[in-house]
Design a protein that fits this description.
Layout: H1 2-18, H2 25-43
Helix pairs in contact: 1-2
Length: 48
């Protein structure tokens, strides 16, 4: 479940960078959240 959310957030961030219209800092906040989720899973010892 967390992996799916992380992947979705990363995809939204990439789309925000590629598109001419971005929602400002929101996309970058989503990226940070996705990275934190992935790091928490790695620290807990679960495989990605």
């Amino acid at each position: 479940m967390l992996e799916t959310i992380a992947v979705l957030l990363i995809i939204l961030w990439v789309l925000g960078l590629v598109s001419a219209y971005t929602m400002g800092g929101l996309i970058h906040i989503l990226l940070v959240v996705a990275i934190v989720v992935i790091l928490v899973r790695v620290i807990q010892g679960r495989r990605l």
